[in-house]
Design brief:
Chain lengths: ~500, ~475
Amino acid sequence: MNQTLETTPAQRDAVTDADVTLIVGLEVHVQLDTQSKLFCNCSTAYGADANTQTCPVCTGMPGTLPVINERALELAIKTGLALNCKIANYTKWDRKNYFYPDLPKGYQISQFDKPICGEGHLTISDAKAAFETRDIQIERAHLEEDAGKSIHDETGAKKPSKIDLNRTGTPLLEIVTKPDLRSAEEAKAFLTELKLILTYIDVSDCNMQEGSLRCDGNVNLHINVDGQKIATPIVEVKNLNSFRAAERAIAYEAARQLRVWKKDGLGIADAPKQTRGWDDANQKTTKSREKEDAADYRYFPDPDLIAVETTDQEINAIAATIEYLPAKLRTELMEDYSLEAYDTEVIVSQGIGVVKYYKTVADFLTKSASGLKSPGKTASNWVAQEVLRYLNEQNCEIGDYPVSGGQLGELLGRIAKGDFDQTRGKDVLAQMLENGANLEAAVEKLGIKTVDAGEVEALCQQIIEENQGVIEQIKGGKVQAVGSLIGKAKKLNPNINPNLVKETILKQIGI
Amino acid sequence: MQIEQLSVAELVEHIGKGDLSAAQCTEHFLGQIRDKNDDNGAFLAQCDQEAADAAKQIDASIAAGKSLGPLAGLPVAVKDGICTAGVTTTAGSKMLSKFVPPYDATIVSRLKDAGAIVIGKTNMDEFAMGSSNENSAFHPAKNPWNHDHVPGGSSGGSATAVAARMAPVAIGSDTGGSIRQPASFCGITGLKPTYGRVSRYGLIAFASSLDQIGPMTRSAEDCALVMQTLAGHDKKDSTSAPVDVADYMAALNKPLAGLKIGICKQHFEEGLGDEVRAKVNEAIDVLKSLGASTAEIELPYTQYGIAAYYVIAPCEASSNLSRFDGVRYTNRAAAEGLEEMYSKTRAEFFGEEVKKRILLGTHALSSGYYDAYYLKASKVRRMIKNDYDKAFESVDLILGPTVPTTAFKFNQHAADPLAMYLADVYTVAANLSGVPALSIPCGFDSAGLPIGLQLQARRFDEATLLQTAHQYQTQTDWHQRSPQS
């Protein structure tokens, strides 16, 4: 890489998108789901009245001392293991010193040179194959305490700022990637997969509205100019508080940096690292008010805390608590249930509850309707369409879904056996959802009865006689006209199997 | 009964038996404070009401025949850098002149649980930074043996209080000698325990990796009794050690036969006053007469102790004192805007020495200097610790002077702060290495000022320190002498 290469405006104008590589690294702050704060016993619950979840320790009163929350350490290790990180047998605490009113001690307890989690990786892929499956390298993940919240007067009336220290001391795991992402889509995929993993291993609620998952991105471009690679100044984009914001901010920043470089030609060595914020309302990044000079945090080991030593046995014990990871489940659904990548993603992205539900349905169906060509696919269709739609509409979790996986499996088995058709099956399901009825009760309530062969013959005979015009059309080659007859048959007997009606009519008129 | 001359054991016994009520005892010492404090400035606050209430409770318990704590009714003075619930705790600084903690330091809770009664808060150098008490933001305490001389620091108020019989016991804290040096200057017994032996929770931090709370008393026996209550693991302090506490009282009367005392040649070289040297040598003879033997030892890296200390302590202090920013419980200077509030508050309410050390520490930790200062000092610290580990392979104790001189006069070192820093030359190594160390009086100089003897032991071996000091005090009466004022 040539950091000082001077370019002419003409050279820069000649650069096309093909010459530009986007370089993105992410820093993700995850709030670990502990009952109490990282260094005191205060609650971490969100939404309490300001400054009601504080104590002398987290408000930094003189003489108070921090004591590590072991649970936070466990969750950090669990996360590291799920991200394939090397877990440190020796980790320590450092102070990051800076003044701000929502930082009561004047320093943040963090980890500088001995983070709890070392290098690891996370695999991203795209079900629609927009980019190739690959491993994104993780640099490290370290534990730290959150700061409080400053509420500044934005009315222009210059009212005093307010500080809420409820959040102060909440455990955060900062996950830092290497500058390994090459597009905004990849960044979004990384965040999506990361959130999914965190949810599967149950270390964070990942609620972005409540700040449980926060993301900053470091973005610049590598530009190929006549065979020489030039890097643009690195910009840290803050305030990426949704995945869509992250994707758009990175895309915006890529375009902006190329535009700026084409104008001024400044490289990474010519300008300091800049901080910009994502303005979601105006869909652009804006320069932050922060000072440009590199902050000196004067890190040094926190003398109030002792280093933490973790044995391999302890790490293995935590590893044993990881039951499910999305990547493994994807393989299982594709190999054991013969699902396509897209269908797999629909199920797996919903979390472990839906995956377990799906497997119950599919397993039941496989057992009860052995002749069915692809029970896995049938089950996924029903779960993806019927079950997920209901969860969406009712805004509830799979645990709240009124019909058990076993019952849904049984219902699908009845459809497969031809007891009633799919449309009727949906009526049955609706009945079960609405009245909490079990399968048999719902079937009975809807008056669904198996229609015997003699009845079908008689009913078809009647329809043929009453609809000679249509029959002529069919005989004349317009076979699809039989559809209207099926409708009539269903009116006469809603329990009748439409496929059987079609077969019988065609047979009776000799086609 | 001359109440103020009674030992801790005697006071507790009299109170327990009922021939001296806790109320009488408390009022007696509060009276001593009222009589003397205007002259010697040992106390920053008196807890008349709280102490009287606590005494009444003890007396009620005695009347009801309830079982009593080991220190029931014992008046205790507490250094003002240690938090006391509901009682202003200033750490000798204007920054905290209105700070009333909502919590007791762990050692204050332990003392109260043992039945002790906090009678007042003692004077100190601001945030424990100083060796003379001249850095108290309010007024300096004075040496009871001669008011023209400093009592030492930073726990100068505590030392003055005990020497002047204003309290039978005072609690101090020691970061580089802040218990032992004033104990030496005031002719009392002061123990800096092993790092981690006593909880630091509630001690307003100066340098967290060096700070340790300890008792300041007239005799080693008093010290042992109080230490028994102070020592022990505290789950609120991660650096407090989960190590069993020895029976200090039981250790006192063991004979010294077989005890190996190490003498470090460097402690007797240039800079040591002749009178101090002579008295320390006499003390060695006393201990030998009790059956101890001596051996010469080397502590080669301790010569860099002062240098390492004056890097590490300010580094930690610069960070520890960041919380005093005008936002919450401190005083706040009138200002427009955030940065001005910070700078004006800290400029106005911190004293000169504190500001000097914050600047030193901030500089030493900054990018580009960290390796040359903090990291190097930390390495020196490890070497010093290694020196001690090696020495304690062959000896049980290390003996020497506590301070090179006796108490100096006020303003004597005003023009040369480095000379003042050298007052810590024999004491800082115990903080850097974490070993326990104690100072006991071993004589007086020709001006009538006390001389101190320092004993250092293996980590967590306070028992041997107290045993040796007690055995020495069975043969000498330096610790029983009281100043005229």
